[in-house]
Design brief:
With 159 residues, this protein is α+β, with helices and mostly antiparallel strands. The protein contains five helices and five strands, in the order ββαβββαααα.
């Protein structure tokens, strides 16, 4: 793949030299207008800016755009199913009440997708451990664990 290109949500972009030193977060929000990825802390601690890069969860606020050129990035805008419906993880978050203010939700959803790709049948403790780098001030985390557990069942049923 060309090292000046980046694929985001299945679409390939030519990256301008002037943008190379941007964070991935700033590039997504300011250049591509993909504002679902949030800037929570700007230091890689809260997880609100989580995206998937070649299938792995990354903090986009501390990831330089130059370090992901030639790779595939998935943001919350690219998670929906082919029919435009909610991804099973998104649906589970809604059904379990794991969405309060919604600010951390995009990063949580992508973190959960990454976790479930690595471990399709996690225990509740594995879910807690797998999501411990995501901060949420509203839900108290119980609903998030419930949602991921529900999504795991649904995703395993689809296989």
């Amino acid at each position: 793949m060309d090292k000046r290109k980046l694929t985001v949500n299945g679409r390939t972009y030519e990256v301008a030299q002037a943008d190379i030193d941007l964070s991935l977060l700033d590039y997504l929000r300011e250049r591509l207008d993909l504002t679902g990825t949030k800037n929570g802390c700007g230091t890689g601690v809260c997880g609100a800016c989580t995206v998937l890069v070649d299938g792995k969860a990354k903090r986009s606020c501390i990831t330089k755009l130059s370090s992901v050129l030639g790779q595939e990035v998935l943001t919350i805008e690219g998670v929906a199913g082919e029919d435009g419906g909610l991804h099973p993880v998104q649906r589970a978050f809604v059904d379990a009440g794991a969405i309060q203010c919604g600010f951390c939700t995009p990063g949580m959803v992508l973190g959960a997708i990454s976790l479930l790709q690595k471990n399709p049948k996690p225990s509740r403790e594995e879910i807690r451990k797998g999501m411990n780098a995501h901060l949420c001030r509203c839900t108290g985390y119980q609903q998030i664990v419930d949602a991921i557990e529900i999504a795991a069942v649904e995703l395993n049923r689809e296989k």
